[in-house]
Amino acid sequence: MMLVVKNLKVSYGKIEAIKDVSFEVPDGKIVTLIGANGAGKTTTLRAISGLEKCAAGSIEFDGKNITNMEAHKLVPLGISHVPEGRKIFPTLTVRENLELAGWTLKDKKLIKERMEDVFEVFPRIKERANQLGGTLSGGEQQMLAVGRALVTGGKILLLDEPSMGLAPVLVDEIFHQIVEINKRGMTVLLVEQNAAEALDIADFAYVLEVGYTTISGTAKEIAEDPRVREAYLGV
Questions:
Q1: What was the pLDDT predicted at 235?
Q2: Cys-Cys link to 9, which of 21, 56, 92, 149 (CB 3.0-4.6 A)?
Q3: What is the pLDDT of residue 147?
Q4: Where are any strands of DSSP class E within the chain?
Q5: CATH class of this structure's domain 3-231
Q6: CA 207 and chain centroid, separation
Q7: How far apart are CA 145 and CA 129, in angstroms?
Q8: What is the pLDDT of residues 147-159, one digit of tens each?
Q9: How many degrees, rounded to 5, is the angle at CA 186 between CA 143 and CA 165?
Q10: Phi–psi pair at 214, nearest 5 degrees
Q11: Residues 22, 5: contact at Cβ < 8 Å?
């Protein structure tokens, strides 16, 4: 199992953002966390990538306990996090954004190879390689944010709300590209409010509600669960 989260608890002062969250991410699969705003999805990702401290519970990655490990130590282990809101560098070109993502790598040839892989997955980003990040559309910025994570060469990609704020046609494109990235061998943990799209591409799914894991199973099972269909799929 690539990632195992057990009985995770995260607090902001006296407020418990996550009370008891547990799930597993098998190697080579797409796993999605779905739930309403405030369910604890983003906080869970931030705890995995070392951006929030865990008050209790454990996080194991590739057989190693990484609970409360500092964020900068997790990237070399193979964890790549694309945060909500993209967080690209608007005053740098697309190429410079990607090159900066490879700053921990000593092998310049490897950085170049990974950038070429990104351009293969996202042809639109290649066309805009010399444009400033801030001049890209929302969808293109999301592609760049994902591409930047791919340059780091992680084993698992943590994606936080990749479809947020995008036009429907771009949402389909982003989800198609997530599948393509997974086919290339990248394990994906996807946090997404667009439950229908997420369940359509995922292998396994977990529902988070007010800081707890409440429902789990294959994505197909979750999509057919009456509670999920009513609360998240509108059917």
A1: 67
A2: 56
A3: 93
A4: 3-12, 15-25, 30-34, 56-61, 64-65, 79-82, 156-160, 187-191, 204-209, 212-218
A5: alpha beta
A6: 16
A7: 13
A8: 998 898 889 999 9
A9: 30
A10: -110, -30
A11: yes
Domain boundaries, the chain: 3-231
Query: Can you give the pTM of this predicted structure?
Result: 0.92
CB burial class (10 A; 0-12, 13-18, 19+) of residue 63?
exposed
The distance in angstroms from the start CA to the end CA of the chain is 33
Core vs surface per residue 162-189: b (16+ CB within 10 A) or e: bbeebeeebbebbbebbeebbeeebbbb
Q: What is the pLDDT of residues 70-81, one digit of tens each?
A: 998 998 899 999
Which portions of the chain are predicted below pLDDT 70?
235
